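Progress against Task 2.4 (sequence-to-structure conversion) is shown through the following example record, which the project officer requested during the mid-term review.
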Amino acid sequence: MKKITTHSRSGLFLTEMILSLLILSLTAAACVQVFSAARTCHREAREWNHIQELTTSAGEILEGSDGSREAFLSLLPGGTISDGHLLYSYDSRWQACSSQDAVYRFIVTLTVSGQEKQAALEFLNRRGETLYQQTIRFPVLLSGKEGA
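Structure tokens generated for the chain above:
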């Protein structure tokens, strides 16, 4: 009598399982990279939005005031005068905080001459790296009595 041999299919099943797990792990790795990049882009967009908002506020304050530190602090409270500069400290959610807990720093250097008001703005992260720099200038407008 002839003996019929049957081959086990467990080897084929194991190979299919390994290939399925390999494809699944590669797909998962790609998804993790995409989500990480999205999170980084979201954080950077949030930083840029707050930087734009504070830069616009600083420009409007400089244009509408005499350019002194006291006038600037009265219109944008929460800052401190440090080494002749105005220093604003913000936490990771862009809420005002102490300089020890600061994740972001906004430094304003004001200069007023007879013809021009100027503010040098600088935004730093917690490592001290510059995120953004801008210099804003406005002419000093003299009233009728001062101009004569």
